[in-house]
Amino acid sequence: AILADQIAAGEVVERPASVVKELIENALDAHSTQIDILVEESGLKRIQVTDNGDGIAPEDVELAFKRHSTSKITTKKDLFKIKTLGFRGEALPSIASVADVLLETATATPPSTIIHIKGGQLVSKKIGARAQGTQIVVSDLFFNTPARLKYLKSMQTELAAISDIVNRLALSHTEVAFSFQSNGRLLLETAGNGKLQQTFSAIYGVKVAREMIPISGADLDFEVSGYVSLPALTRASKTYISLLLNGRYIRNYQLSNAVIKGYGSKLMVGRYPFAVINLKLDPLLVDVNVHPTKQQVRISKEDQLAQLLRKTIYTRIAQENL
Ligand code: ADP
Ligand code: MG
């Protein structure tokens, strides 16, 4: 079973940022309103995520580390209308198979459970006194898979990837207060007051945030909303376009391009806008079960959605009369 988990880890846990992503998504699925993330040495030494969410009941804690055991899907029908970020039940067992994991969790009913798993082996399980919520500490990532360690990029690149994922998840959940520390330095703190502008300003600075304009549009199948920068604010990086589909951060070439096309001739060649776009659609119209990391999704009527997005931005930018 450990070997199978390590194989799955090869897909789910590519780098420290993937661990951070999975842990934050679990905290979000558990309805947390406060999520604190702490990393040391770009996550290789330590990744700690603390939430105030639902927690896991003592009898379910070990199960959470078993492959394909998820509390989020019970019937086959659920698979076609996924509302949570996780559903494959692979993250925790994968992470625990390639690291040292200490998890303490409690539901509204005490006590808490403290479980220690290293390289997929249960080390200990005991009762603790933590209040409702979950704290997971992942240490020595890839200690038993040296090949994986070797393929990592520089510490700086790995930290940038973590920062990027934290930023995107914070942007996609403005109702949650996030804090993010790296080697003792506070890199991000959001208020969790539901205001995208506030989160934007925490990430990109007040100046950028002030010049973002809201967009919104809809057709029979889709709703698009969010903020885009005025052309004056463009930066030469496509990564400043964040797409959130029903709260899930996704990568999609056609849709990112639709954002850029929405600027028409207003955008200078080689420059890209800042944008955070929320896409809302019936979960039946999207298949998130394409890749283990779930960042690629299959959308029915994707062309129609791209059209709507382009038109919504085009119309809004035109109103600004630049
Ligand atoms: P998935 O998210 O796909 O269900 P995971 O391996 O990420 O699978 O997590 C396994 C299970 O552990 C989840 O279904 C959930 O029940 C539980 N779990 C994990 N993290 C948390 C958390 N932070 N708070 C509450 N429950 C959690
Ligand atoms: Mg998960």
From TrEMBL:
It comes from the Bacteria. Residues 200-318 form the DNA mismatch repair protein S5 domain. This protein is involved in the repair of mismatches in DNA. It is required for dam-dependent methyl-directed DNA mismatch repair. May act as a 'molecular matchmaker', a protein that promotes the formation of a stable complex between two or more DNA-binding proteins in an ATP-dependent manner without itself being part of a final effector complex. Belongs to the DNA mismatch repair MutL/HexB family. This is DNA mismatch repair protein MutL. It comes from Liquorilactobacillus satsumensis DSM 16230 = JCM 12392. The gene is mutL.
